[in-house]
Every structure is written in structure tokens, then in C-alpha cells.
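[Automated response] Your request has been received and processed.

Submitted sequence:
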Amino acid sequence: MPSPRILRTHLPTQLLPPSFCENNCKFLYVARNAKDCMVSYYHFQRMNQILPDPGTWEEYFETFINGKVGWGSWYDHVKGWWEIKDRYQILFLFYEDIKRDPKHEIQEVMQFMGKNLDETVLDKIVQETSFEKMKENPMTNCSIVPKSILDQSISPFMRKGTVGDWKNHFTVAQNERIDEIYRQKMKGTSINFFTEL
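Generated structure:
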């Protein structure tokens, strides 16, 4: 593809091709709190027929907190990107901020990309990128992907998109445990996640 190109990846920083940073590429990194990320990935793995069966929620909880999921430890992934965000052209975004104030976050992206859009276009982007609108769109909801790959009768690809759904899955003990693991693993970082709005 001719430049400029847009690529999407889930790669942790240590697996990025060095040329991405050497060529001064711009990165948009979207981080989601560990609790909701775990719930989302659990349901995605349940419906994804290519990935291993995640087992029960209790089993998956252990798998996730031990970093035995695709792309490795959530903690290492997020910390890796957070630690290099000031060395390269990285706009570090939080999913929770996007949910709380999508227009503001889209304006951040627009400025980062050196674009200037009028209010009408900005409002249209906010509307078209809402979870509800994207859930209806076959280009984003993966409804055109065969059931043999993504079985949406198990769980929709775009399930809820909310902040705080973890409360419907975590036991009190699991919540206390992940909070303690978070304190240990993220110690020394200034990163701050919201787990509810």
C-alpha cells in the first residue's frame, strides 16, 4: 500500500518490528482496565473456534492473571507501551476515557494525526464509531466471518462494550486478588485505570 499506511496490531512492544520506531511511525495505543479486558477476552475466546477453549471462568481467571493468554501478560503489555510512550510518537488512550467522552478522545486523535476537522465531521465520527452503531455494522461486528471461525451463537463479537461488566463475573475474592496483583505488577508506574464510570 502507498504511504501513509494504517496497520492494526495487538503486538507487545518487544515484538514490534524495529523499523516501526526507526521510521518514526505514529502509534495509537488503546488500553482497557484489566478486569473488563479479562471478561471481554474470556467471551472472545469462548466464541473464537481457532483459540483454545478457555474453560470455566474460574480456570480462565487463573490463565489470565498468569499471563498465559495470547499476546502474554496484560500487565507487561500495558506497561511496555506506557514506558515507551514519551520516546516515540505514541498517543496512549484509555478505553474508559473513550466511553466517557468520545468526542474529546477523537479530537485528541485528530490533533495527534495532524488533522483539522469541522464540528459536523467530528460529530459524524462520534456517531459512526459508537459501540451501538459499530455493533450493527457487518464491517466491524464480524458477522460475515464464518461460524466455524467465530461462533457468535456462543457470544457476539461485539458483546457489551461497557465499563464495569467485570462486576457481573468476579467474585469478591477474585476482585481482591486481582487488585493485589495489579498493585504488585504495576508498582512504580504512574498509570491509572478506571474500572467503573
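Summary generated for your ticket: The mean pLDDT is 95. Residues 23-153 form a domain with the Rossmann fold fold (CATH 3.40.50.300).
If you did not submit this request, please reply to this message.
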